[in-house]
Design goal:
single chain, 161 residues, mainly beta, Elongation Factor Tu (Ef-tu), domain 3, 2 domains, 6-stranded mixed sheet, 5-stranded antiparallel sheet, 11 strands, 8% helix
Length: 161
């Protein structure tokens, strides 16, 4: 099976098992680099049809089996549930998900006014691994729960009536 990896594929080459969403744990019987991703052979997936049945299924590894990271690095799943804070420590919301959007991944942040999308790689976003996501003083006004300086087409139409 071909596996699209968020991050560095080489970090996963030593995994001995993977969790398939909706199918449970499977032993990894083989894995190698293939293009930008990996080719994975899982126990119990010996035919093309068996592999096709798993198309689109999310695969996970246990935290204890993931490679250790250097200071300042983190896995995206570690961000879920973290509070989003101002530099002064005010809690603005909570990270509910991370969206892989190519060059600019987005934090999905739940807050009192609803949901906000925050560019993860923005210079005003800091991650304190295991503690919080901190928005710097240079974060744009209205980023979370405030009034943005953007007027939507539907708002313009309502003003014209």
């Amino acid at each position: 099976m071909k596996l699209f990896v968020i991050g560095e594929p080489d970090q996963l080459l030593k995994l001995k098992r993977m969790y398939l969403e909706g199918h449970g744990w499977r032993k990894v019987s083989g894995m190698q680099r293939q293009g930008l991703g990996l080719s994975v052979q899982l126990a119990g997936t010996d035919t093309r049809e068996a592999a096709l049945d798993l198309r689109g299924v999310n695969l996970y590894a246990h935290d204890s089996e993931l490679p250790k990271l250097d200071d300042g690095q983190y896995y995206y799943h570690e961000l879920r549930g973290l509070p989003v804070q101002s530099v002064g420590g005010e809690v603005l919301g909570e990270v509910s998900d991370v969206l892989d959007m190519g060059h600019q991944d987005l934090l999905v942040v739940q807050h009192a006014g609803g949901e906000a999308l925050i560019p993860l790689q923005a210079p005003y976003v800091g991650v304190q691994r295991g503690r919080a996501v901190v928005l710097g003083e240079d974060a744009p006004d209205g980023l979370i729960g405030g009034q943005a300086d953007v007027v939507t087409p539907s708002a313009e139409a309502a003003e014209d009536e």
